[in-house]
Structures are given as C-alpha cells and as structure tokens.
User: Fold this.
Amino acid sequence: MDKKVVLITGCSSGIGLSLAVRLASDPKKTYKVYATMRNLTKKERLLDCIKGLHQDTLDILQMDVTDRTSILNARDKIVEKRVDILVCNAGVGLMGPLEVQSMDVMRQILDVNLLGTIQTIQAFLPDMKAQGEGRILVTGSTGGLHGLPFNEVYCASKFAVEGACESLAVLLKHFNIHVSLIECGPVNTDFLINLQKAELGDTSLQNVDPQTLSLYEKFLQHCGSVFQNAAQDTEDIVKVFLDAIQSPSPAFRYFTSGFVPPLTELKLTHPDGLQYISAMSDHIFSDNEQQRP
Ligand SMILES: NC(=O)c1ccc[n+]([C@@H]2O[C@H](COP(=O)([O-])OP(=O)(O)OC[C@H]3O[C@@H](n4cnc5c(N)ncnc54)[C@H](OP(=O)(O)O)[C@@H]3O)[C@@H](O)[C@H]2O)c1
Assistant:
C-alpha cells in the first residue's frame, strides 16, 4: 500500500518535531513525512531524534509559512506529488500589555499564525480537491476558544484560525477533505522561550500604568504556575493527532486533555459572556487561592 504523505509545518521543535518523529517511526511505515521548518540550520534536533533511521519515511524541507515562494518550493520537492495529510502547526506567541505592542510585531504574529496557516492550506488545497480526499490538521489553542489577558493578539490570531478552519470544513466536506483542530492547553515545548514577551522592568513598559503592571505581574506568576503544574508533554499531543489522523471520520475539534475546559464551557452555557469574563478574571487575578478552580 502507498504510504500516506504527510507535510508538517514548524518541525524545528515542540509539537511539530514530536509528531514528525512519531509518524516517521511508525513500525508499519504507514507514513512518508515531510517535516518542514523555516530555518534548516535547526534540523539537527530532529535528526538527533531519528538517529539516522527512517531515511525512507522522513524528509526535511525548508518552509517559512509567511513566504509563499518558500511554501511553493517545498511543495515542488514532494516526490509523490501529493499531500494526503497537511498539518499546519507553525505558530508563535506574544505576551504583554496591548498598548506596548508595535504594529510590526502584531503583524508578525498574524502573519505566522493566521495568514501562514491560510496560505499553507491555499497552496495544497487545489491538489487535495482534485484527489477527492485529504486531511488538514491545525494545531489550535484554548487561546483560540477563550480570551486571555495580555495575549490579545495571540488569541485574536488563534480565534481567527478557528473561524477560517470552521468555514473551510463546511465546504471541504463536499470534497471528502476533513479539517480538524487539535486544541492544546499548555504544552512543554520551546513555545514560552520563543514567544515575544514583555518582561517586567523592560523599558517598553515604562509608560504603562501601575495597575496594568501589577495585573501583568500576577498574570506572569499565574502563567508560570500553570505551565509548571499542568502543561502536557508533546507525546500527549501527538496521541491526539494520531487519533484524528487514524479516525475514519475525524471530529472537527479535539481537546488534548480529553474534555472541553470548564471555562470554555461557560461561554456556551452563558452566551452573554459575562460569566466567562468574571470567572477568568478570578482565576488569574484573584489573591484568594480558594477561588481558583
Ligand atoms: N506550547 C503551548 O503551550 C501551546 C499551547 C497551545 C497551542 N500551541 C500551538 O502549538 C503550535 C506549535 O508550538 P509549540 O508549542 O510546538 O512551540 P515551539 O516549540 O516554539 O514550535 C513552534 C514552531 O513554529 C515554527 N515557526 C515559527 N514561525 C514560523 C514560520 N514563519 N514559518 C515556519 N515555521 C515557523 C518554529 O520555528 P523556529 O524554530 O524557526 O522559530 C517552531 O518550529 C503553535 O501553533 C502554537 O500556537 C502551543
């Protein structure tokens, strides 16, 4: 049987790297993986993980999701001339008070997370439609389902990805192409190292009002403890990707922790949004530990 051809974006580290390694190591050699990354000088980490094995199931290609030429060049290098499973995973974070974010930085986040995802899909969509089947998986975030303070632009980008994917899914159903979002909470990756973050004491924060700075400090502490206590490993996320990839009728949304986060549910049970805003505010900013779920 022909191998399933998989292309994954953002494989220099984290979720993309782990997924590439897992699929390329499949004992039945079910997959041919094109692990892409924007900077090939970072490929050693992936090569270290596969230890010279899987030469027939893994290729590494350069692809910057913000650069259409680079996407098309990668597409042209696919030997099989088709992609069965496209994984749009590349993404970057941005954290800090909104008033200090420059247009350039905000554009970069939207360029990678939103337009990068969309233009990657655009490049492979006509062939998938012509094939009459395919899978598109996107690494989503609970930050694309509910708002988080000091993450306005990141959440905006991930909310927008939800809208783009849901819209596409309605259409692509008619082409036997399944779109799935893998909704991740905190995951132990390089994400926190790679994200663009305003540090307390940075000169960029000197004109920010004291109340915002004090809330930002609380948010950073909250974020640190969430990542320390509740972050999943990439292996947990990869299992969910595999569920979606192997399912004959995949869901549109998968939650990596197995259930819809309680605070996200509040948005459905109380659609005016006020319960969510109060609950999230208490969750992050309350000094009373008892109130934290
Ligand atoms: N970790 C979490 O807590 C978490 C939670 C929810 C959702 N997510 C999502 O998970 C996805 C993967 O993140 P991760 O946690 O694995 O973090 P990561 O280790 O920082 O990986 C992000 C990957 O995206 C790549 N990337 C960034 N800009 C790119 C571009 N222009 N073109 C191609 N690749 C680019 C990075 O490449 P470079 O090495 O070149 O920067 C890196 O390979 C992201 O979409 C993120 O939003 C993560």
Q: What stands out?
A: The chain has one domain: 4-200+232-259. The pocket of NAP is lined by residues 9-16, 37-39, 42, 64-66, 89-92, 112, 116, 139, 141, 184, 186-187, 189-191, 194 (CB under 6 Å). Strands lie at 4-8, 31-37, 58-62, 85-88, 94-95, 134-141, 177-184, 196-197, 253-255. The first strand starts at residue 4 and ends at 8.
